[in-house]
């Protein structure tokens, strides 16, 4: 459904067809190779010169396809349109047929238009016919993709939730005295208790939970995003103790060591500001700044 000027890159992973799971048809090939051939076939049917490449990534599925040019002139777009629709219809399986036998592709109405599936929608007067021409119930992705990983939440809201959850974990532990706020005495620093995500959620008010519910992963995602303060393991939330973190490896490549050094003390230390015992690490060992004068 893309425009004639579109190019594409695809890294096939899960075995899916247009209407559900991909069904094997050749036993002489591996499932992966057969599926790769199918994905390449889709590109050919859509009128692309399909190139295959193998990415240098640590994955067993690293074969990709690139379509940079077309096999036909722009004037033949309507003909290729028809070819694509026939191909989609030929891939319909019995599984789909049992879902709705009364719904099918309408080959009597051809607009000849090509619409981008990942960005633009057909004109308003063609919206209804586009669905019947290409695939019943097809919904193109919106022009603006909504970010729902808690990254777009207001900073004040996130800071408030982090502080509330941290106080909940700290107050759940027995209070200790004689803390050393500057040096971080290892014997008295309050690490708090661990609570389940459910217990933490029960503590938060309804308005906060409502905001988090609209995000992917909700409360767990927000806490994991704030990895300086929290550690979430097996559904339980802990206050992160930076004394237990592994020191950076001296065998790291020079580039990675340089990047780590450049990221050192670029943000304020949450524990230095908010924890009743201060930071568990001395200033020179903490990757975060103990005060604005240390910020880089």
UniProtKB/TrEMBL annotation:
Catalytic activity: uridine(44) in tRNA(Ser) + S-adenosyl-L-methionine = 2'-O-methyluridine(44) in tRNA(Ser) + S-adenosyl-L-homocysteine + H(+)
EC numbers on record: 2.1.1.211
Gene Ontology CC: one annotated term: cytoplasm
Coiled coil: none
Residue span, C3H1-type domain: 263-293
Membrane-spanning intervals of the chain: none
GO MF annotations, alphabetized: tRNA(Ser) (uridine(44)-2'-O-)-methyltransferase activity; zinc ion binding
Chief localisation class: cytoplasm
EC main group: transferase
Record's subcellular location: Cytoplasm
Biological processes annotated in GO: tRNA methylation
Top-level taxon of the source organism: Eukaryota
Keywords, sorted A to Z: Cytoplasm, Metal-binding, Methyltransferase, S-adenosyl-L-methionine, Transferase, tRNA processing, Zinc, Zinc-finger
Zinc finger (C3H1-type): 263-293
Function: Adenosyl-L-methionine (AdoMet)-dependent tRNA (uracil-O(2)-)-methyltransferase.
Sequence similarity: Belongs to the TRM44 family.
Protein name: tRNA (uracil-O(2)-)-methyltransferase
Organism: Phainopepla nitens (Phainopepla)
Source species taxonomy: Eukaryota, Metazoa, Chordata, Craniata, Vertebrata
